[in-house]
Design brief:
The structure is a single chain. By secondary structure, this protein is α+β, with helices and mostly antiparallel strands. The protein folds into 3 domains: about 60 residues; about 90 residues, L1 transposable element, RRM domain (Alpha-Beta Plaits), CATH 3.30.70; about 40 residues, no CATH class. About 55% of the residues lie in helices and about 15% in strands. A 4-stranded antiparallel sheet has the order 2-3-1-4. Strands 5-6-7 form a 3-stranded antiparallel sheet, with helices on one face. Strand 5 and strand 6 form a beta hairpin. The longest helix is centred in the first third of the chain and has 60 residues.
């Protein structure tokens, strides 16, 4: 019986040692997992920050672009023709003096790259050489009220998605008699930015 007891005691000690080693290993794995988890969180924050930076840089490169919708398109339209069509449209629809429109310098004017659909004109994207010219044209958007035309700023898809989400909140604030507008990707109500 004593021999059996000693053998059992030896076996229990060996099992205790193995359990102790396993606990040590598990603690080490837990520490490593926590470290990896922290590192992943850091990398995700860095990725999100980089995405925001890229979106901001894209929006800055589009800052002096305006998009015009509803402007009729001619068959086999060349870029020079598109610019002439746009200048005439700005004069006629936005009621800006011909001399002023003639003095505007564009870096590039082109139709949107989407597939042409019969009976539907593609949008015109105009990159102005000077921000001042862009703003003087953009400010006349109210002249297009009640027409089939529109003019708006160009933004990256990420910013457009944010603006779409803010639009109902802006309309609600206006319905409540508050001054509200969207600038870039932020809603302002009575002059204060509204956070989600």
């Amino acid at each position: 019986m004593k021999t059996l007891w000693l053998a059992l005691e030896g076996r229990v000690k060996r099992v205790d040692k193995r359990v102790s080693k396993l606990e040590h290993s598990t603690e080490g794995a837990d520490i490593a997992a926590a470290h990896v988890s922290r590192r992943i969180d850091d990398l995700e924050r860095e990725r999100d920050s980089l995405r925001e930076d890229v979106t901001y840089m894209k929006s800055q490169s589009m800052r002096i672009n305006l998009i015009y919708t509803g402007v009729p398109e001619v068959e086999s339209e060349l870029p020079d023709t598109t610019e002439s069509i746009l200048r005439k449209h700005v004069t006629d629809a936005l009621k800006i003096a011909h001399e002023t429109v003639a003095s505007i310098k564009f870096e590039r004017v082109h139709r949107s790259p989407e597939e042409q659909t019969r009976g539907k004109a593609r949008s015109i994207i105009a990159k102005f050489a000077f921000f001042k010219d862009n703003e003087s044209v953009r400010r006349e958007w109210k002249q297009l009220t009640g027409t089939n035309y529109n003019v708006f700023e160009q933004f990256p898809p990420e910013v457009v998605a944010k603006r779409r989400k803010l639009l109902p909140k802006m309309k609600e604030a206006r319905a409540n008699g508050k001054g509200s507008w969207i600038s870039y990707d932020t809603l302002y109500v009575d002059g204060r930015p509204v956070r989600d």
